[in-house]
TrEMBL record:
The keyword Transferase applies. This is GNAT family N-acetyltransferase. It comes from the Bacteria. Signal peptide: none annotated. GO terms for molecular function: acyltransferase activity. SUPFAM superfamilies: Acyl-CoA N-acyltransferases (Nat). It comes from Kocuria oceani.
């Protein structure tokens, strides 16, 4: 859905980020469909009820209309010595609102949530071969390839 926009206005600055709700279920299914994924409604309901200390979903809205979403969760440690990692498993912006920096806003929020969860590293676990055109996006935001995931970033201290 295209939203009328004054010339020269920065849409990303007008975006409001909020926690996802069960009422967003069909939006989330539509966004997933736009990037080639099919989500089960019951799976979405279960995920949206997850403990926010270990998992969170964010919706980007523009004039109260959802235009993007992201999912971040705290990855289980393999050993007690492992650094705490969080993972972004989904980050999608409605196809009519791409290239408006909304994805950047969502990624910034995922980083903030990962820090709140106690993560030292945020990894991108969205299948890269399906989204090779996003490699530049991750790199512009400070993510680099590492041995355990396609892209990861060491998070600094909370601002």
């Amino acid at each position: 859905m295209t939203i009328p926009q004054p010339a020269g206005a920065n849409r990303a600055a007008q975006v409001v980020l909020r926690p996802a709700r069960v009422s967003d279920m069909f939006l989330l299914m539509d966004l997933a469909d736009q990037v080639g994924y099919s989500l089960n409604p019951e799976w979405i309901r279960t995920r949206l009820r997850a403990e926010p200390a270990t998992e969170d979903h964010v919706v980007a809205t523009l004039h109260d209309i959802p235009v993007g979403a992201a999912h971040v969760y705290l990855s289980p440690r393999q050993t007690p010595e492992d650094a705490v990692r969080a993972s972004v498993t989904a980050l999608v912006v409605d196809e009519e609102h791409r290239d408006e920096r909304i994805g950047s806003r969502l990624l910034d929020r995922c980083e903030e949530l990962a820090r709140q969860m106690g993560a030292h590293t945020l990894e991108i676990v969205i299948p890269s071969r399906r989204h090779e055109d996003l490699h530049g996006f991750w790199q512009r935001h400070g993510y680099a390839r590492d041995g355990s995931s396609p892209f990861a970033k060491v998070l600094g201290a909370r601002p």
